[in-house]
Amino acid sequence: MNKEKVVLSQKDIPQAWYNVLPDLPEPLPPPLHPATGKPLTPADLAPLFPMSLIQQELSPKRWIDVPPEVLDVYKIWRPTPLHRAVHLEKAIKTNCRIYYKNESLSPAGSHKLNTAIAQAFFNKQEGVERLCTETGAGQWGSSLAFACHLMGLKCTIYMVKVSYHQKPYRKSLMHVWGAEVHPSPTNLTKAGQSILQKFPDSPGSLGIAISEAVEDAATHENAKYALGSVLNHVLLHQTVIGLETKKQLEMIGEKPDTLIGCVGGGSNFGGFVIPFVPEKLKGKDIRMVAVEPTSCPSFTKGLYTYDYGDTAKLSPLVKMYTLGHSFIPPGIHAGGLRYHGASPIISLLVKRGLAEAKAYPQNPVFEAGILFSKTEGFLPAPETSHAIKCAIDEAKKNDGKCIVFNYSGHGHFDLSAYDAYLDKKLEDFEYPAENVKEALRDLPTFD
Predict the structure, then answer these.
(1) Residues 6+ apart with CB under 8 A from 276
(2) I need a surface site. Which of 91, 104, 159, 225 has the fewest CB within 10 A?
(3) Tens digit of pLDDT for each residue in 137-170?
(4) pTM for this one?
(5) Which domains does the chain show, CATH number per domain?
């Protein structure tokens, strides 16, 4: 068996997604209605999601079958290889073994397509004609655009304005696959109009873009909302990553000591580490490290509390680590990590000490990404480079550990960001604690 590139056959693509909800150390706090603060019912979610996804969101079943139609599309790029980063190991002179799961090989260039295909399929099955969504750096938007094209659905995307201008070729890719793309905030929705009245030059945020997409979906018949991260059913679909990784490590006789992934809302990290949670709960010593930017430090500076998922308070309240739904992050190039909150599942794992979080500024992250590209050849997305930076730091401890990280996406659409780094034009930004406190003052309260 080649231990430098571990390749599975198509028959090894997981036939079922793993649902961690029944195995968590305690039940997740229930999502709440945004207007009343009372626990949500499936009927409350029906204006936004098809019933099949609502059932997955709340399901007590440990395994949920992947439909044959979704498996057929997965076969375009799955299973993905597990690489050993031998050249990186030599460059940093470590006695640790570094592996990475290469999710950049999907048509959209990232892990996001794992859930985009599933969500488009379940919506199509229930007669939905159009999906509305938000996107930050564009990995999710391009993934949903491709998924909607394959399933015969229309697709409307609200792209965070700063990323819309920073990453024009992501927008172009969405257009190639037939999606309609708008720089958010827009004048097309009440939520967008409200923001622009107060902040005409707003760079946008994922919270604002979510508000626009949710409003669009809720106010049009035959349209639903699709979310690329945070929610339980999204992480469920992403468990194909971790399930494949487990099998690949077992094939070469490796046992992971440290699992690492970047975190915005939590989809790639969750999909990567969740299949290992049962072993962790049984006492196996596996570290799970979520890496975020210092400019958007949900875990490292936020609170674990109920908050809205969007700026206009249209989406359900979930208990998570949050910086406050009114938080507007700086325009860093890791646009996919610029979200004020995090997955309830990952938040609970961090709260219970089953996972941990680290934060890095963007210059050291880009330095790590370039070192990885110069040694391993693949150019990582700025988001992915957060995981690479952490993996390098862990390997430099020279403690002989097996370190595995999720290579969640490529950086081919981020070359202007790399140019800015090489020209020494990137600024590091650590979000001030007082600014976080200001945003957190607007947390929801109910009588």
Answers:
(1) 242, 246, 256, 259, 286, 288
(2) 91
(3) 899 999 999 999 999 999 999 999 988 998 889 9
(4) 0.94
(5) 68-109+232-440 (3.40.50.1100)
